[in-house]
Each structure stands twice: as C-alpha cells, then as structure tokens.
Amino acid sequence: MSSPDSGTAAVVGGGTMGAGIAYVLAAAGTATTVVEPDAGRADRLVGELTARARTGVERGRVDPGVAEALPGLLRVVGAVSELPTGLDLVVESVPEDPELKARVLAAAEARSPRLLATNTSSVGIGSLAAGLAAPDRFLGMHFFNPVWSIALVEVVRGPATSDDAVAAARDHATRIGKESIVVADVPGFATSRLDNIAAFEAMRMLEEGVASAEDIDRAAVLAYGHPIGPLRLSDVVGLDVRLDIARHLESVYGERYAAPAILRRLVGEGRLGRKTGRGFFHWT
Known about the structure:
With 284 residues, the chain is α/β, with parallel strands linked by helices. Helices cover 46% and strands 13% of the residues. The chain is built from eleven helices and eight strands.
C-alpha cells in the first residue's frame, strides 16, 4: 500500500467519538464524509463542529482559516452505501457491539477504501477482520475523547494487518496532528488496560471513603501531571461505556477488572456522566 495523500476520508457514526474524528480530519484539510442515520443528529452535526472550531479560534487554539474552511470539508450522509468509492481512509466509529461493527465494516469495505479502520477500545481486530475480504488493509485506530485535544492514536495491528496498512495509519495520524503507538491485538490493547485499572481503583477509593471524588482527581492531576482525573474522565467517557469495557476485560483477565459497585449503581440509576448531566460530578 502506498502512503496516503490526505485527501478523502469518511467516518461511520456521528456520535461523540465519530464527530470528534471527523472534526480533526476536516481541520487538517481532509474532505470528510460522516455517515449518520439519525436525521436530527445529521442535521446538527456540521453546525456543532463549526461552532467547535470557532470556539477554538476564540481561545487561540485554531487558525481562523481552519474554522472558515471546515464547513466546506464536511458532508453528512445517511447510509454507508452513499459513501464515495476509493476513499483514502474509512473509520468505523459505532457503539462497542461486535456484531454491529462487523456489519458496518463489511458495508464500508464494499466501498473499496484504501484503508479501513475501526475505532474501538476493546473489540478484537482479528475477530472483526474475519468477515472482511481484505483483512490486510484493516486495523484499529483507537482515538481518545475529546479527540481534538488528546494527542494519541493507538494503532492496533490485527493478525492479518499488513506493514503497509500500519504505515498508512500512522501517516494519517501524523497528518491530523496526532502521535501514534502500535500495539498488538490483545483485549483492551495497551491504553484501555492502563486507563480502566486506574479508573476502577479511583472508584474503589471513593467507595472506601479514602477521599472525595474531587480530591482523588486532584491527586492524579497535581501529583502525577494527568490533564484530567480518573473520575472526571470516566464521566466524560460515559459510565455505561466504562461498565461495558469492565465486563469485557473481566471476562478475559479476571477479577482485577471487575466493575466497582459504585459504577454499577450509578449506571443503574441512569447517572452516566457528562452526557446525562450527572455521574461522579454534576455537569449542569
């Protein structure tokens, strides 16, 4: 596979992560199509991302020219079948449901992209590749929330992923201003294992009354230089997402990844973090 030219890309899924990925692609000058079947969400998407860019300009973080060009680089369609063929990159970013991801990836592969990626924090690349005709051009590109401010992309090499595909993925990451690491296709990869074990320990500390949620997070930020504490980050990620990942990792690695009782309780109460206005912290 030759190195990509950064011209064209698509993101399947216009949720929090998909929108963030589309934003950084378009902000880097890539003509980007987003597949979002929810008509209401689709109608709002370009406006929300344009507003994000304008906020970045006001804060001195985004060049005014980028914000001005962004709407013209974004297009939203309702189905994968509406994507152009031969795109440089297609990133699937739908919920962490292996069957759903497999269906979406098969449909995306039919559009003949040069590189096909899944944005996943936990689903095995090899299992998803099993349903593809060209698994050598498929890999994981794990982005982090908020995509526009976190510098890392975790490139996950599946058992059939070619060296050229890995190189192309790292080129794409560089073009959108990200650093990349390459990891093996093991459950949780590298970052989810590190992140979740820290988050679960912080939750258990809160359960045990070691300190308040605010002070546990302050310890991580002030003592270890983390940009955000593990409990606030969990609220941003979504506590329901944390719980799904916990169940998956526990099934593989055992009790050390078991979901803390407080996480199960908050999800049961519908307190999912920032997206519902309340989790470990109040967001409204």
